[in-house]
Design goal:
The chain is about 55% helix and about 20% strand. It has five helices and three strands, in the order H-H-H-E-E-H-H-E. The chain has a three-stranded mixed sheet with strand order 1-2-3. Helix 2 crosses helix 5. The longest helix has 17 residues.
């Protein structure tokens, strides 16, 4: 009988996700969820919808002035979200 050593459940789940080819989808969901943590509650309250599609984070905002202001810090937001996820998922952010 082959002897195996104990592994963390997180490592087992990550390996299973990698085998199934679902890590990209999972990272996109993590990036979408990271929006609220990165921008904070005060900005997130103006967000109605957000999703990642092929490396583009689409964010729907109810405030036109906030959309304009966030356009100036787009690169910093992308870096912060990618750091939060731990992978280079978001290549561009589009504000609607």
């Amino acid at each position: 009988m082959k002897r195996t050593y104990p592994r963390h459940i997180a490592a087992i789940i990550d390996e299973a996700m990698e085998r199934a080819g679902l890590t990209d989808s999972l990272n996109e969901q993590r990036a979408s969820a990271a929006w609220a943590d990165v921008v904070g509650a005060s900005i997130n309250r103006y967000t109605t919808r957000r999703y990642v599609d092929h490396g583009v984070l689409h964010v729907y905002l109810t405030s036109a002035s906030l959309k304009n202001e966030l356009g100036f810090v787009r690169d910093r937001l992308m870096d912060a979200i990618n750091r939060w996820v731990g992978a280079d998922v978001v290549k561009e952010i589009v504000f609607h």
